[in-house]
Amino acid sequence: MASTNQNKSGGFNYMKMLMLFGMIPIVIFAVVVLLVVTSKVRNEVQSNIVEKLEVANTMFNEWAVTEINEEGGVEVFTKEGADHTYVDSLTGKGLQLTVFVGDTRAITSLPGSAPNGRNEGTKAGEAAINTCLRGGQHFQQDGIEIGGKKYYVDYLPIRINGEIVGMTFVGQTNEAVSAAVSAVIGPILVIGLILVIFFAVLVILFAFKVRQAPVAISEDLNVVADGDLTSPVTATSGVTENVNMINSINRMKNTLRDTVQTIKDNSDELAQNAEVVRELSDNSSSSAAQISTAVGELATTAQSMAENVQDVNSQAVDMDATVSDISENIESLNANANDMRKISIEASEKMKTVMKSSQSSVSAVESINKQILLTNDSITKVNEAIELIIDIASQTKLLSLNASIEAARAGEAGKGFAVVADSISQLSEQSNASAATIKGIAEEILANSETSVKLASEIMSAMTDEQAEISAAQDSFTKLNEAIGQSVESIEQIDSMTGSLRTIKEQIVSNVSDLSAISEENAASNQEVSASVESIAASVAEIADKMKDMNDLAKNLNDAVAFFK
After folding, report:
1. Distance of alpha carbon 425 from alpha carbon 398, whole angstroms
2. Which residues neighbour 259 within 8 Å (Cβ) at sequence distance 6 or greater?
3. Residues in CB range of 453: below 8 A, 6 or more apart
4. Which contiguous run of DSSP H or E holds residue 151?
5. Treating both helix axes as pointing N-terminal to C-terminal, what angle do 498-561 and 240-324 enclose, rounded to 10 degrees?
6. pTM over 0.85
7. Closest to 431 in 3D by CA, of 388, 389, 377
8. Does residue 331 carry a pLDDT above 90?
9. Which residues does 455 contact at the CB level (< 8 Å), separation at least 6?
10. C-alpha span between 207 and 17 (Å, rounded)
11. CA atoms of 460 and 361, how far apart (whole Å)
């Protein structure tokens, strides 16, 4: 799982993005506006200065013409002690005035090297002479150097009676013009900078405000990623998308918490059921061992009975010889009859023992059958729990898919959410695989258990037949005892009842043959019972192993969801 440091490292955050995309347009807009405004202001100021120079020169030109007309010639400006009051009247406003007589400065406010400290007696520039003095046109230009300084200049020709006799000049230094422009542009730049700072502060505050919700959401998702589903979502926001994301996180946490709790409960129940089945399998194994012991004793008894039957058969043969020579061997017949009585009594007792063993085997088989049926019920419950786990895993998978879609919609902010969704998807797939494995094991156990039930039914049927046959054998022994008793009591009448004795002898031989067949059948049945019991024992052992695997799977499932609180 990604760590908190990994979630916080690299890339742009909300603060950087909002400040970047908020400040860049503001700065660009402010720069463009300031450049446009500055250009317009500069052009406007320069235009105003040019107009001011033109107006001032027009008024100055009219004054010069008036002075010449009143004084009777241009000498009014060239005489010694000429009045400089008017040309000096605008120096306080940064304007320099000059009256040219011809192309020579007669009086001027410009400082220079003349005795009076003025730039008088110097020539005008060629451009002004050609355009204004010779061409009679209005001449304006900037950057004209006069006395080591550059000026914005305005020249007008002086006409007296239609004749150009000189020029008037009004000029202002480039420095003064730049200062005037700066005086207008400076406040605009300050206001623009203040506005940029103001909007920058607004963007920063907005960025901090917007950033709070994603940061809180990221911290809540980190808590979920650490496995804690109990902590409430602390994020709040006034943005609709963030509110929707917070609500989605809340629903995701609640759903995930319920899912994990359900898995834990079902895994606990599965572990308990597995333990119950294991105990039942242990009991079944013990019962199978008892049945095996009983079957072994039954086989021993059957073998002994077969031997006794062989003895009885041998005695019957002897009796046949004795009957042939009954008159000569009466005493021997009497002894043999007593021996036969004893052997018959012992055979009867052994038949009773066989009957008891058979009854014990039937009880044991019935106990096994009941235990197997209980095992089937437990396996059915396990299957139901597995189906519930598979259903929960499927719902968790669907929830993970929905969470992945929501994370994809959230973009960069949903990456951490996407990691959680992917972890949930992997957990659901692991749970589904584990449940499928458990289900396969349970189905195999159920199949083995059904086989055991079938075998137990066959054993019970065989034992029922065996009891019937044993009962028939007991009846035969009873009849044999009665016949031997009658033989002993009628020993004195043997001579006259030889024919009857032969008939009885034939009946005994027939009964012994039947008893021999029954003994052989009992031996075969005992072998079948023994094989069935061994099969049952193997199935029970396999059930125990499968229950151990199922218990381990339940523990693994518990461990898988133990990460979540």
Report:
1. 8
2. 392, 395, 396, 399
3. 369, 372, 373, 376
4. strand 149-160
5. 160
6. no
7. 389
8. no
9. 532, 535, 536
10. 9
11. 9
Residues 6+ apart with CB under 8 A from 565: 227, 228, 229, 230
Place of tokens 């029922």: 464
State the Cα–Cα distance between residues 190 and 183, nearest whole angstrom. Answer: 11
Contact indicator for 100, 114 with CB cutoff of 8 Å = no
Domains of the chain: 244-561 (1.10.287.950)
Beta strands per DSSP E along 33-123? 96-101, 104-108
Two tokens, residue 354 = 């066989």
Helices (H), 226-329: 240-324
For residues 543 and 448, the answer to whether their CB atoms sit within 8 Å is yes
Block residue for tokens 């929501």 = 406
Query: What's the one-letter identity of residue 3?
Result: S
In angstroms, what CA-CA distances link 163 with 65, 76, 157, 361? 12, 17, 9, 158
DSSP 8-state symbol, 132: I
Residue range 61-82, pLDDT digits in tens: 999 999 999 888 888 898 888 8
Q: 6 exposed, middle or buried (CB, 10 Å; 0-12, 13-18, 19+)?
A: exposed
